[in-house]
């Protein structure tokens, strides 16, 4: 982990991390690399790139979280953003779901190792959650999961009225949102101003597409 890059990003986001939380982030990346030698979890393995694309990118979601929020990360993969959120926001309950068992095994391993009692990793398809967790989350997020259209379709039933969907996307997301205005409204969602940001070391622009469930 590149501590200097992480510390700078934390300050820019007006966040505060304890030494224990920095240590947990470091251990997370070390374990990801260790597991990655046996099972393919991520294509991103460089020190700076992992720090930026896994940790710093995930941290951009933190300002959107409210105390006590129940969060769902859909298609969480090796645990981004879910694991980072669970480390830095012990006051929130973080559920993550992924269809691939080995990815969830990794998340469970990290949960045990770092004693993340606020983390609930689930193995399965998100479509199955609608039956018993409908309206059960204050914020549903995803990164690199699917088209915005599919995310809206699958995630809207899972968020509570007044809660938000936050899709972590590339910088060109505005166009996608424009094309989907009608389906977004039909799902009972209202689009809120997006949060646009640039990752360090020219690693690209990103956008948080935010939609609030009005009914
Ligand atoms: C490209 S990965 C992104 C992982 C992680 N969010 C990240 O940004 O590093 C997409 C993940 O979505 C999962 N996935 C795809 N369709 C799914 C579904 N219907 N339910 C649950 N997980 C799904 C895949 O198994 C995969 O791990």
From TrEMBL:
Gene Ontology molecular-function annotations: rRNA (guanine-N7-)-methyltransferase activity
Keyword Transmembrane helix tagged: no
E.C. no: 2.1.1.-
Keywords: Cytoplasm, Methyltransferase, rRNA processing, S-adenosyl-L-methionine, Transferase
GO cellular component, one term: cytosol
SUPFAM superfamilies: S-adenosyl-L-methionine-dependent methyltransferases
Localization (cell): Cytoplasm
Sites where the protein binds S-adenosyl-L-methionine: 75, 80, 126-127, 143
PANTHER family assigned to the protein according to its UniProt record, in alphabetical order: S-ADENOSYL-L-METHIONINE-DEPENDENT METHYLTRANSFERASES SUPERFAMILY PROTEIN (PTHR31760:SF0)
Family: Belongs to the methyltransferase superfamily. RNA methyltransferase RsmG family.
Functional description taken from the UniProt entry: Specifically methylates the N7 position of a guanine in 16S rRNA.
Family matches, as HAMAP family: 16SrRNA_methyltr_G
Protein name as catalogued: Ribosomal RNA small subunit methyltransferase G
Organism, scientific name: Trichlorobacter lovleyi (strain ATCC BAA-1151 / DSM 17278 / SZ)
Lineage: Bacteria, Pseudomonadati, Thermodesulfobacteriota, Desulfuromonadia, Geobacterales
């Amino acid at each position: 982990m590149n501590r200097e890059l992480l510390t700078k990003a934390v300050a820019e986001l007006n966040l505060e991390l304890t030494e224990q939380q920095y240590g947990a982030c470091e251990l997370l990346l070390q374990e990801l690399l260790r597991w990655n030698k046996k099972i393919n979890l991520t294509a991103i393995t460089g020190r700076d790139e992992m720090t930026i694309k896994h940790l710093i990118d995930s941290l951009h979601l933190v300002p959107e979280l409210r105390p006590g929020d129940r969060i769902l990360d859909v298609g969480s993969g090796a645990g981004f953003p879910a694991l980072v959120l669970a480390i830095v926001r012990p006051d929130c309950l973080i559920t993550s779901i992924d269809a691939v068992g080995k990815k969830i095994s990794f998340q469970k391993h990290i949960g045990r190792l770092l004693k993340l009692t606020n983390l609930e990793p689930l193995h399965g398809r998100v479509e199955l959650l609608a039956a018993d967790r409908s309206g059960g989350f204050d914020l549903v997020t995803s990164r690199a999961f699917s088209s915005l259209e599919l995310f809206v379709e699958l995630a809207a039933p899972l968020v509570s009225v007044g809660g938000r969907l936050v899709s972590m996307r590339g910088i060109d997301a505005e166009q996608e949102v424009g094309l989907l205005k009608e389906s977004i409204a039909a799902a009972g969602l209202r689009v809120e101003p997006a949060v646009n940001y640039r990752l360090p070391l020219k690693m690209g622009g990103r956008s948080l597409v935010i939609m609030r469930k009005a009914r």
